[in-house]
Amino acid sequence: MTGNRCWDVVVDAMEREGIKYVFGLPGNPMALYDSLYDSGVEPVLVRHEASGAYMAFAYGKLTREPGVCFGSPGPGVANLVSGVLEAWSGCQPMIVLGASADTMSEGMGAFQETPQMEMMRPITKWSYRVPHPDRAVWAVNRAFSLSCNGRPGPVYIDVPFDVGVAEARETRYVASKRPIRVRPGSDAVKRAAEMLLASERPVLVAGGGAYLSGAGPSLVALAEVLGAPVLTTPSGRGCIPEDHPLAVGLVGLYRTRVGRRLFREADLLMTLGSRNEEFQTAGWSYYPEDARYIQVDIDADELGRNWRPDLPVAADAKLFLEDLVGVLGEKAAGRPLDEMPRVRSVVEAKEAFLAEVET
Length: 359
Known about the structure:
Blueprint (H helix, E strand, L loop, with lengths): L5 H11 L4 E4 L8 H4 L5 E4 L3 H15 L3 E5 L3 H4 L2 H10 L3 E7 L15 H5 L5 E4 L6 H13 L5 E7 H4 L21 H13 L3 E5 L1 H5 L3 H11 L3 E3 L14 E4 L6 H9 L2 E5 L5 H4 L10 E6 L13 E4 L2 H15 L9 H18 L1
Parallel strand pairs: 1-2, 1-3, 3-4, 4-6, 5-6, 7-8, 7-10, 8-9, 10-11, 11-12
Helix pairs in contact: 1-7, 3-5, 9-14, 11-14
């Protein structure tokens, strides 16, 4: 760190959090960008602030780390809103930095003075205006913790210009603890195993929470033990290879004929890290008749919000699947996929559908 200004402290904190890039368009370089010189955080310049927000979203999606974007006062921060809203909707960790007008001229019509906090509060997990440079250390640590733990999402840190260039006495930064994972209770895992073993036509649905937790390998292992087809939400794509025999595409409005049939025929449905919103459920009219339901989500508030589960599990998807595969490994006799009748029928249905599409 080259100095003790508030923005210097913010940049030092980002370095200690492992941040490599900030996507944005500078205004006055004294707000953030001067502090990036000689730091390990590289500015990626864009031609429109919205591009910076979307680039931060995409970077976070690919790396499972929080992307960082920046907007200058007024229209600069306003232009971030669509990308921040995308992160809010998709539960994607993101750190949004914004400069704002001086505190001493607040309410007087300062150049590009805008109600930035009011714009960001409804579409972030947390929005905080730094009142003093000595609060920067706490604010950045809190932002990373809230953005990455529990249900991930964007947070906004607003730095008034006079605060950003003022000297800070509190400069020592300790990186946040993330991600903090929630392991399921053993009773819930055992009950889920019993329900899956008792079912004849289980179907697994992986959402964005499963992808962010890195649950893919354990999901594939579970599917292969059970011979169960796997659908994903758009945010859950990547949890299972598209060419895997048990991968049957997207759920909800973008379903294929094969996926729709398998979903409708299920006698047990298990969703992992999906909020079961309108798009993912084809208007909530898509539930398989008489099927039992296991819902796994890291956010307990999401359990039963739309479809009421027979077994609600508040847990990290990866940890849940690891524990579940461990229990099933003791009870389910594994067979090669090509020897499982259900798997063969899934593969044949996919091949027939693809042949039809290609002709």
